[in-house]
Amino acid sequence: MEDGRVLYLDLMKKVLTNVIYADPAQAADWYDGSGYEPEKRENGLDWPTTAHTMVGLKRLDNLQFCVERVLMDEVPGDFVETGVWRGGASIFTRAVLQAHGNTDRTVWLADSFQGMPETTDDSHPVDRYMALHKSNDQLAVSLEQVQANFRAYDLLDEQVRFLEGWFADTLPTAPIERIAVLRLDGDLYDSTMDALESLYPKVSPGGYVIVDDYVIPSCKEAVHDYRTRLAIDDEIVPIDASSAYWRRAA
Questions:
Q1: What is the pLDDT of residues 78-103, one digit of tens each?
Q2: What is d(CA 52, CA 1) in angstroms, rounded to the nearest whole number?
Q3: DSSP 202
Q4: In whole angstroms, what separates CA 135 from the centre of its chain?
Q5: Which of 33-42, 50-59, 170-179, 202-211 has the least mean pLDDT?
Q6: Which of 160, 171, 238, 245 has the maximum number of C-beta atoms within 10 A of its C-beta?
Q7: Which long-range contacts does 16-22 make (Cβ < 8 Å, 24+ apart)?
Q8: Which domain of life is it from (predicted)?
Q9: What is the DSSP letter of 61?
Q10: Under CATH, to which class is 51-247 assigned?
Q11: pLDDT digit string (tens) for 186-195?
């Protein structure tokens, strides 16, 4: 059983990142999108054309570690991702639960399902400069498409739930009681802060917080502003050059 679980989850990571068929990257303002580069796909540094996730193999390895650790330690709570794109990281989380025979935890996907919000004069200067909403042709993925992606892996069931809308509107009243793993992938200062303010108080001691966009200065600033305000001093551990995580001590 253990060997089968390892093989299944390793194959899921390869399929979700599409390192098997090596689809080329899409062009973006910061990347020309020319061809497939294994190192970029491993480290989540491109926007794949067809792969179901852009987070890369290293971040999926980290996600597997966090999910399996809270299962092993019996840390109570569900699994939440804020900002899901094509759904690949959450699909993988559901696959980990399936592989371990878990039937009592929910994977929550929070997203606008219409791309990034437009920045305003009040937005963080870095977010205004990046203007990620201009890439919504690549970043906007509908709820129906994400559900179809789950269904393609036979993983769309009652343990998967969706929160559709802007984080400021959906997260404060989200019917989530406790969280074992919180994965933040909202890129922007406000999106990161909205998620932390609404969801971090629900993270159980021993649970994990993963910050996909820690490399972006505005996202990093939101994380540190929130941690400073609450006097959180749990060690932030790098995952790769772009992302980081910490384990909640108390």
A1: 999 999 999 999 999 999 999 999 99
A2: 27
A3: G
A4: 18
A5: 33-42
A6: 245
A7: 16/51, 16/52, 16/53, 16/60, 16/88, 16/91, 16/92, 17/41, 17/48, 17/51, 17/53, 17/55, 17/56, 17/57, 17/60, 17/88, 18/48, 18/50, 18/51, 18/52, 19/57, 21/50
A8: Bacteria
A9: H
A10: alpha beta
A11: 999 999 999 9
DSSP state of 152: H
Instruction: For 138-150, write each residue's pLDDT tens digit.
Output: 899 999 999 999 9
CA torsion sign, 129 to 130 to 133 to 136?
positive
Q: What is the pTM of this model?
A: 0.96
Say whether 237 sits in a helix, a strand or coil: strand
- The rounded distance, in Å, linking the Cα atoms of 208 and 140 is 27
Residue 125: how many CB atoms within 10 A of its CB?
11
Interatomic CA distance for residues 192 and 37, integer angstroms: 29
Neighbouring CB atoms inside 10 A of 4's CB total 9
